[in-house]
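Protein modeling request. Please complete all fields; requests missing the sequence field cannot be processed.
Requester role: graduate student
Desired output: 3D structure, token encoding
Chains: 1
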Amino acid sequence: MKNSLSTIAFLFLYLSVKAQTLQVKDLSSSVGSWEGKLTYMDYSSGKPYTMLANIKIELTADNKGFVIGYEYPREPQANSKDTTYIIDNYFGKDKIVEFKKDTNGGFKMITEINGNDGNDNKRAVLRHTYLLKSNTFSIIKEVKFEGTNKWIKRNEYYQNKQSSKVFKPIEVYHSDNLIVAQVAENAFVHTSYLKTNDFGNVPCNGMIVRDNNESIVFDTPTNDKSADELIKFVMEKLYCKINAIIPTHFHDDCLGGLAAFHKLKISSFGNFSTIELAKANNTIAPQTGFNDSLKLNLGNTYVVVKYFGQGHTKDNVVGYFPKDSILFGGCLIKELQASKGYLGDANVGEWSNTVEKVKQQYPKVKIVIPGHGEIGGKDLLDYTIQLFKSN
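Delivered output (391 residues):
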């Protein structure tokens, strides 16, 4: 069964380009968690058998291949992990004989290899047909025994991309200056540190969202060194171009590393008020301004940046990524049990009203990222509203 299961990995390694131009960066969208079932024909009884099957795909440490883990909830003894590298027009030893891509990003791929099959180990050609449509795929294994022209169906896989509802956050990068954790299929929290007089060494959050090898970053790390690390991570680990950096207000925990982005000619966007306040403080400012809202394309989707009113500062905005129903609240939103924090530039009287507007605007939000501390859900909005209702 392990040989059959290994073929699943090949599906994920061909999402966006033809075999002759295949590169690891073109296949980064295959990284993630999948779940579904396998139905195969039992050789002894001749009857079909169905079992649960989950797959997790990660990049190798050298970023030149993929580590594919197979999990079978009801048959854990069959669990395994393989490492697969791309070599020319082959997935392992299987040759690609047909590849067709549709306009929506799906594809049909057929591979063949000479081998053996059946209880009597007869010589045969083994064929695998992969069909990918949106977030689902099927794989059919067929065999044609030597001396015959008939293809016999042996098994079929059907899988779904796991939704963000079952996604388990995982740390994907850690250094002395920067931590990155994946919190949804296409969203990451980056955390860097700011030395302050009143609150010590404060961890500061930002967000990365991606789609189709493009990304947008909300808030820079707190300094250029940490920002350089983040940029390198996004480009070399996620294989994503950075379309834009968006500081959500004018404090250093949002734009302290902006120069590192500008050095690489990465476009920056900010509320006109953020630009004005940054310049007044003699700090680097975003290049392009907007008034109340901004919509930026990202791959095949988009992000929205919107100003709802004053709170932590007079210029604070939030970012929303509809694909994963995730809100980056920045310092406008507090983690559970947090204190009111720094209020030197705050409008405490309007803070709750502003967050109420955010809550009403995004009723379907699933994940909320605060400027500092642990992520959560809508409960972070409710907590922040209550925290500032009494001054």
